[in-house]
Amino acid sequence: MFKKDNLRLGLVLGLIAPLLSLTVYYFVKFSDFGIGEFFSYIGYNKMQITAIVVPCLILNIVLFTVYINTHRDKTAKGIFAITLVYAIIALLLKFLL
Predict the structure, then answer these.
(1) Which terminus of the chain has a lower count of CB atoms within 10 Å, N or C?
(2) Count of CB atoms situated within 10 Å of the CB of 56
(3) Phi and psi dihedrals of 36, rounded to 5?
(4) Are the C-beta atoms of residues 66 and 59 closer than 8 Å to each other?
(5) pLDDT tens for residues 24-70?
(6) pTM beyond 0.85
(7) How far apart are CA 66 and CA 9, in angstroms?
(8) 37 contacts: CB under 8 Å, gap ≥ 6
(9) Are 83 and 61 in contact (CB under 8 A)?
(10) Beta carbons within 8 Å of 18's beta carbon, 6+ residues apart
(11) Where are the domains of the chain?
């Protein structure tokens, strides 16, 4: 499955990797809080958005690099597109809300 060169696969991987990273970040840093308290804390403390988004996007960058280096450009294109969407949403959350 991971050897395919497919835009949809890239989009799915680009969506799942940051969510996996967010889950790990939650269990490492905020395991004493409930999920609702975690998101409330993020809402009140905008500086945490950067601390959370960076590891999420780094995981996508690693995936992107792997797929580019193995010449699976369509999959890499999907990962890159979702990475841009995550980054734009993070900027909007941090500066506009």
Answers:
(1) N
(2) 20
(3) -60, -45
(4) no
(5) 988 998 888 888 888 888 888 888 888 888 888 999 999 999 999 99
(6) no
(7) 14
(8) 30
(9) yes
(10) 56, 57, 59, 60, 86
(11) 7-96
